[in-house]
From TrEMBL:
Occurrences of domain Glycosyltransferase N-terminal (ranges): 13-249
Protein name: Glycosyltransferase
Family in the record: Belongs to the UDP-glycosyltransferase family.
EC number: 2.4.1.-
GO molecular function ontology, one term from the record: UDP-glucosyltransferase activity
Domain of life: Eukaryota
UniProt keywords, alphabetically: Glycosyltransferase, Transferase
Length: 492
């Protein structure tokens, strides 16, 4: 691997959207590209850089050619509180627009920064939600590749939904509409589909996303071809540009310390957590977590607690609740729950080293909100899943997991839940639904064994894709493709 002083070419500039589910895969991408000979600049902001300080320190320690570049975000200028630099800090809808405005104001400082570098940038790879970066790329005379954090299945759905405006005359959010142009019969509803920022006030931003998506050189995704070949091919054909499937990106990284701290420092002592898992029977533990953004209301926490207790199965439950002002406050769980499940239950309140936990041999199942990163991490660990989508494209991912890949079992969620909803607006999944799903997933009847076998097959395919197969080849081709286009100084 090249060091920073012995700078390799080409030079990739990565610009994530500042939400954990978007930043984490781009941190993985930075390591992946650097490992295969590229130089990487990773654009961030001071608050976001502080959150990933251990990743930054570790990259420096291992002499990995990634430059983390914190640019000051002009929060005050757009009316955001100082330090409000990540979407998970936001609880009011109108602040999202302010944040996207603040990010687009990084245009000038970014251009200036990149123009000063001794190794000129060769391309920008930026999140779909950072469309202003298309103008930066054009100003610098380099291609912009769009990072799409969805899988190809959901990306194709999203593309068809928005390009063909299929919900334009649909008043009832729950009405099922056949998705025209999809490779097979699929019915989707407006309420359970990704929104593309289409609420009032977001019109310009949403149009810019679609426009820059059309103008992007190509698309990069954290999926692998063998997982969803039909949808990768169809998505590629429909958008008329190359889709680089280079995932599961985190599997390229064998440094456990980087994997453990992806996104944030864990709220649990890692050694304690791993020893607890070591003490459990192989494949016996159910891991329960709803990603980085979802906050679980008290009444739902109680139902989950009782469902897990009634299932009598071991569990590791990560709780991000809205019932406490800080991470250190006591959670409201049913009276005596922790005593009654002592020995077979571990609760992590806050941030868990998820990718490490999922790959532990004692973990045998995953209750997931179907965020794409969690899904691909579950697939990479060979785990069958209980699907519990909350919002965004998660209901589409549920469809992929349960009905296409057939490695999941739906807990039975009908309506969306998001963090700006009031507790009485959230529709609650009941304890007996949860208990039934857990017993079925972790049980031993014919169905679950087949599901488990399919999950194991996918794990092997994922490993193969990154070791010697499609994702490995795509990364190498991507680096070569960017090299062959030349850097800015070459094209002038
Ligand atoms: N994650 C983690 N620890 C946590 C919660 C989440 O490491 O306590 C990671 C998880 O492994 C995944 C990402 O955060 O990589 C969440 O992304 P996902 O797309 O699953 O969901 P989102 O948070 O965007 O809803």
């Amino acid at each position: 691997m090249n060091s920073l002083d012995d700078a390799p070419n080409p030079h990739f500039v990565l610009i994530p959207f500042m939400a954990q589910g978007h930043t984490i895969p781009m941190i993985d991408m930075a390591h992946l590209l650097a490992k295969h000979g590229a130089m990487v600049s990773f654009i961030t902001t001071p608050v976001n850089a502080a959150r990933i300080q251990s990743t930054i320190d570790r990259a420096r320690e291992l002499n990995i050619p990634i430059r983390f570049v914190p640019l000051r975000l002009p929060c005050a200028e757009v009316g955001l509180p100082d330090g409000c630099e990540n979407v998970d800090e936001i609880l009011e809808k109108d602040q999202v627009m302010k944040m996207t405005d603040a990010y687009s104001m990084l245009h000038k400082p970014l251009v200036l920064y990149l123009q000063e570098q001794s190794v000129p940038p060769s391309c920008i790879v930026s999140d779909l939600c950072q469309p202003w970066t298309g103008d930066v790329a054009r100003e610098l005379g380099i291609p912009r590749l769009m990072f799409n954090g969805f899988c190809a299945f959901a990306s194709l759905c999203r593309y068809l939904i928005h390009q063909d405006k299929i919900f334009e005359n649909v008043a009832d959010g729950d009405e099922l509409v056949i998705l025209p142009g999809f490779p097979h019969h699929l019915e989707v509803s407006k309420a359970r589909s990704p929104g593309n920022f289409n609420s009032p006030g977001f019109e310009k931003f949403s149009a810019k996303i679609l426009d820059e998506e059309r103008r992007a050189d190509s698309v990069v995704t954290n999926s692998f071809y063998e997982l969803e070949p039909l949808y990768v091919d169809s998505y590629q054909k429909r958008i008329g540009k190359r889709v680089w499937t280079i995932g599961p990106m985190f599997l390229f990284n064998s440094d456990t310390s980087t994997i453990a701290d992806r996104g944030a420092k864990a709220s649990v002592n890692q050694k304690y957590c791993m020893e607890w898992l070591d003490s459990m029977k192989r494949g016996s533990v159910l891991y329960v977590s709803f990603g980085s953004m979802a906050r679980t209301v008290v009444s739902q926490l109680e139902e989950i607690a009782m469902g897990l207790e009634d299932s009598k199965r071991p569990f590791l439950w990560v709780i991000k609740s809205d019932n406490k002002p800080s991470e250190t406050d006591k959670l409201f769980l049913p009276e005596g729950f922790e005593e009654r499940t002592r020995g077979r239950g571990l609760i992590i309140q806050g941030w868990a080293p998820q990718a490490l936990i999922l790959s532990h041999p004692s973990v045998g199942g995953f209750v997931t909100h179907c965020g794409w990163n969690s899904t691909i991490e579950g697939v990479s660990a060979g785990l069958p899943m209980i699907t519990w989508p909350h919002c965004a494209e998660q209901f589409l991912n549920e469809e992929l997991i349960v009905n296409v890949l057939k490695v999941g079992l739906a807990v039975g969620v009908q309506s969306i839940t998001n963090r700006t909803m009031k507790p009485d607006e959230v529709s609650i999944v009941k304890r007996d639904q949860i208990e039934r799903a857990v017993v079925e997933l972790m049980g031993k009847e014919t169905g679950p064994e087949e599901r488990r076998a399919r999950a194991k097959e996918l794990k092997e395919k994922a490993r193969k894709a990154i070791d010697e197969g499609s994702s490995y080849n795509n990364v190498m081709q991507l680096i070569e493709y960017i090299s062959s286009r030349g850097t800015r100084t070459d094209v002038q």
